[in-house]
Structures are given as structure tokens and as C-alpha cells.
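Field log, afternoon session.

UNIT: design team B
ACTIVITY: writing a sequence onto a fixed backbone
BACKBONE:
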């Protein structure tokens, strides 16, 4: 659904608060789809392409592969309100994160494993400003370094890497960051803040292979959330 542009019947998801100025690379998917259609028209959905690209990106950046289940059909509609209401906020506390994932059939273990995807990517200043200026559960030198690119006012769209240590490598350093109180988003640091998920963060920080195994399993599980098949979608 996130690939669909606004039209006369619905407002799409690209401008939803969690997505605007954040999700990007739509042109990459368009290019892939064009080439796939030229090779075998009407066979491979954009939904499957996204699932494959997610896996292949992880592999390219140093992570482990997994088997992507295929056969999804594409949605013909999108929902701005669903994107605004169902994507967890970077200001979420642990209980809200757990509830959000549980609502889609994902466990707390899945939550912690999938959050490790934040070993890659960047966040906008507006999503972590409150954390670096107001919170106490943060390494002071880390907060100071991030403040240099995220002023207390203005610069909302300035980007900082979610994993400062190895921002372009898929590894377990995200969890090491959390253990050192260097999570960029409030929602990230909530996974290691004295709650029920502390031990899992510690495990992943110590054992990258365990993280890779659990991440792959959780990605397959997430990819199985209500896919359109049969005559649904197109």
C-alpha cells in the first residue's frame, strides 16, 4: 500500500507522519518492477518485490539470508489513517510497543529482534530531539555529539544514523548501543531500560548469530501478516 500515490478515491500513506520525509527509495522499486515486467509480465507483485528487496538489502550489508515466501498480491488501496495509527511512534514506551506488535500477532521476542533493523538507516531530528535534550537515560557524550546536527529548534529533517557505530553494516551493534544508553530514539532505548526486554537485548549484544537467526524468523513471520492471495488484490 505504501507504494500507491494519492488518487481521487483515497489519500495514500506516503504523507503519513511516520513516513513523510522518512521512507524513500520508491524509484528503486519502480525500476525493479519495470525490469521484472519486461521479463515476465503480470507475474511478480510489488509486495513480493518489497519482501525480496528487504532480504537482499540485509544480505548486501552483511546480514544473513532467509527464504522469502512468495505469492502476495498487491493492494489496490491505501490508508493514511491506518499508517498514522498503526505504525509505532518513536515516542512509544515499552508497553505501547509490545501492544502494537501483539495486535499483529508478533511477540515481544519478535519486537526486539525486528527492532534490530535499526542497525541500518537514519532518523529525522524531530523524532529524537526530545530524547537527546530532555532524557536522563542517555549517554551524555552521545547526546552531545547528536546535538551538533540536531538543534533544539529548527532542522527537523536533519538526519542522524540510528546506529552511530556502524551505520551501513547489518550487525548487532544496535544492541550494544542500547546497552551503553546510546539508543537514538526513545522507543529504541525502551528495549533496554530496566524492563522485560533487557535480557534479550543483552543476548543479542553478546551473540550476533542469535540475533541473525531470530531476525530472519521474525521477518518471515511479519511477511505472513494478512497477505493478499487468491483473488484478493491484483
Amino acid at each position: 500500500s505504501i507504494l500507491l500515490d494519492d488518487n481521487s478515491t483515497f489519500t495514500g500513506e506516503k504523507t503519513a507522519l511516520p513516513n513523510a520525509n522518512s521512507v524513500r527509495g520508491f524509484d528503486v522499486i519502480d525500476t525493479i518492477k519495470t525490469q521484472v515486467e519486461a521479463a515476465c509480465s503480470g507475474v511478480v507483485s510489488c509486495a513480493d518485490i518489497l519482501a525480496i528487496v528487504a532480504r537482499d538489502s540485509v544480505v548486501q550489508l552483511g546480514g544473513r539470508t532467509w527464504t522469502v515466501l512468495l505469492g502476495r498480491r498487491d493492494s489496490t488501496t491505501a490508508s493514511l489513517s491506518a499508517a498514522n495509527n498503526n505504525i509505532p511512534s518513536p515516542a512509544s514506551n515499552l508497553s505501547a510497543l509490545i501492544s502494537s506488535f501483539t495486535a499483529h500477532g508478533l511477540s515481544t521476542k519478535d519486537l526486539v529482534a525486528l527492532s534490530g533493523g535499526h542497525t541500518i538507516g537514519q532518523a529525522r531530528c524531530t523524532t529524537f530531539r526530545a530524547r537527546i535534550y530532555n532524557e536522563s537515560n542517555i549517554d551524555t557524550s552521545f547526546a552531545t555529539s547528536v546535538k551538533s546536527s540536531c538543534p533544539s529548534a529548527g532542522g527537523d529533517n536533519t538526519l542522524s544514523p540510528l546506529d552511530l557505530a556502524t551505520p551501513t553494516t547489518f550487525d548487532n551493534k544496535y544492541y550494544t548501543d542500547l546497552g551503553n544508553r546510546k539508543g537514538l530514539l526513545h522507543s529504541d532505548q525502551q528495549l533496554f531500560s530496566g524492563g522485560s526486554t533487557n535480557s534479550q537485548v543483552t543476548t543479542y549484544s553478546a551473540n550476533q548469530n542469535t540475533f541473525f537467526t531470530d531476525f530472519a524468523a521474525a521477518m518471515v513471520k511479519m511477511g505472513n501478516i494478512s497477505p493478499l492471495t487468491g483473488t484478493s488484490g491484483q
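LOG NOTE: The two ends are 12 Å apart (CA to CA).
NEXT ACTIVITY: expression trials, pending approval
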